[in-house]
Amino acid sequence: MAATIERLRDQIARAQHAAEGRALIELAKGILVERLHCGPTEAALQLATLAGQSGLSQLELAADLINQAAQDRLTQVSHELLAEHRPAGAGGDSVAVRLREAESGVLGASDSQMVAESLLQHALTPMGATAVALWSAGPDASLTLVGFAGHSTEEARRWHYVPPGVATPARRALMERRTVWFADLAETGLPSIGHRQDVPAGRVVVPAGTGGRILGVLEISWPGPLQPQPSAIHRQVEALAELCAHTLEDRATTPAAAPNLAELIELADALADPALVLRPELDSGGLLTDFRIHHTNARFADPAGRPRSLVDGALLLEAYPSAAEEHGLFEKVEHVHATGEAFHTERMTLTSLIDHVPLATVADVSITRHGDCVLLIWRVQNESLRLASLLQHAQRLGRIGGFEENSQTGEITWNSQLYDLYGLEPADRPIPLEHLREHAHPDDAAAIGRFLRTVHHHRRRGSTAFRLLRPDGSTRHIRVVAEPVFDADDRLLAVRGAYQDISAQHWTEVALAATRDQLAHSEQQAVERNRLTLQLQHAIMPPAQGPVEAFGLNIAVRYRPAEEGHLVGGDWYDAVVLPSKKILLSVGDVAGHGVEAATGMVVLRNALRGLATTGASPAQLMGWLNLVTHHLTERVTATAICGLYDPETRVLRWARAGHLPPVLVRGGAAEELPMITGIMLGVISEAEYEEGVVQLEREDTLFMYTDGLIERRDVTLERSQERLLATLTRLDTVLEHSLDRLLIHSNSDTDDDTCLIGVEVL
């Protein structure tokens, strides 16, 4: 049974193909009859003779004759494809034959379904396409599937109708009014007929229409990703869409689809706002050039003051030249006419010329398409309407509801916003002001009572804030203000006022108050914490202390805290005489600021003092201090210099851990001690440190410092060290004065603390 059905389908397809071929041959005979002025029989013999002489089949020759006579878009596409050496396609048919057969099938089709099948068979399958869908655009920019081929019937049933606003490839072509090629539809995420989101597939969607109006969309599917196509293929696809437009035009002009023009005029006349009925104006080539004002209703008022008789029958751009401005009225009308998508805006500026002077008018504009016509409605906003609209929007944005209570009749008037504030429906009865306490929190009854006495008894303007209990159980913080209205005899006529929802403001104030309290508490804790840290730091390292003379050395120290009080640092200095009568000199800098840096500084400084009592060398001391830093502190890193001075030999042995080397001033010249290796403390657990040796002489001065003395953000460290050496060559003869001079003329800008040790050999 399946084989029989397939055989019958094949026979029907061959018969249809033969019929379409015969139609082309008959059309070519007609061309020869017209050109040779002969009869049909002689034209048939002439066609056969010419085909034999040219080596072409009669069908191919017929297609060539039709192309020469028509010189239309299909002719141009055929020539372009042949120039690009495109293959003939299935069955050996030429490009011209395929396109003309497709045209014949479309024109001879009785419905859009046959159009889709003919396009796929004759024109699209040779291009590699596997399915086609033909969409009809509705007057509301909806899409209806009117023909398909290559898609299953079940899939077509699912996609029979696409409502307005649903994003699909066909809608994108409709709204953008251009052909859109999708190399892989899966990458866009747009749903469409026959497409699975996880399967790569190429698509092209082409708007089809005439006279500036898009009647539908032709959608062609490929089974895999679509490679870039030459321009001739682009034009072939657009030519096929033009063929489809004729079928869609017949569908759009059926009595069921096209509204009667007289009915549209009756609709315009029944409107309460000014309305214009516009009809498209086409040139000789069928292209849209303008819209003619076919009818204006009785309420139409021209912004320029012209009578209706001068506007009726005029072209839109002639009557209103400013409509041609970019994003102006004409562009909106053209888009609605092309796509069917309605347009509405509350504020559009319409400019008219009065005695060559432009007059701008603000209007609410609505544009809709009805068949081939466009209905344009505008409502000019006068001053009172604009103010009323402004007040309405202000009340909505400010969550303000207004009311008025007539004291003579008892009538109460609320606006819609007040119903929303109370959580009531517009059909509910308004709540009198004197019953306000029944809908408020009991704790606010006293405040509401004072407010009502002020308005009703003292007859003065009053206001209060209260918590409104809504029917849904929620609570709103509301502020109400009211004032009495009197007549000429000082009799109370009404009470008017407004409610405002201040819930957001209330909770914002509560949150801000809590935040302020929390910030104040945090600031107080931070200040106290820094004060205690500074006290600890200053107790260990006073900013200045008198010089110390011991074993032929004059030692002076300075400590300068950071300029910002909250930047408590981790710099330290130390100068102490050990039990071995050697003198320990050290400076260091713990990374970071705050309590952690200060406590880390205390640990390392005291650890170095304790380790130095063992009599170990500076390199060994640095190795041990690195172990302390790595294992006995929490995430602390530091730089340091440790020196041991032997008074008997005047020899200084020193080691460094990532720190700047000491500076020796001798004979008026200043230079850094030779650089030795040593990684900063706390980076790795096991580290070896090199040891340097320097023989000091009488009147030598040695300086150790932390980087806060010289470091700048805009200068390299090498440049800063050069400036320091230049400064040290011009020092005072008194060591303490020299240290003070260094701190005064230091041009560092990092807000870091600074430690400085000066050692003078006597």
TrEMBL record:
PAC domain span: 462-514
SUPFAM superfamilies registered for this protein in UniProt: CheY-like (SSF52172), GAF domain-like (SSF55781), PP2C-like (SSF81606), PYP-like sensor domain (PAS domain) (SSF55785)
Alphabetical keyword list: Hydrolase, Transcription, Transcription regulation
Record Pfam families: ANTAR, PAS_3, SpoIIE
Entry superkingdom: Bacteria
Record flagged with keyword Transcription regulation: yes
UniProt KW Secreted keyword: no
Molecular function terms from GO: phosphatase activity; RNA binding
The protein's name in its UniProt record: Serine phosphatase RsbU (Regulator of sigma subunit)
Protein's organism: Nonomuraea endophytica
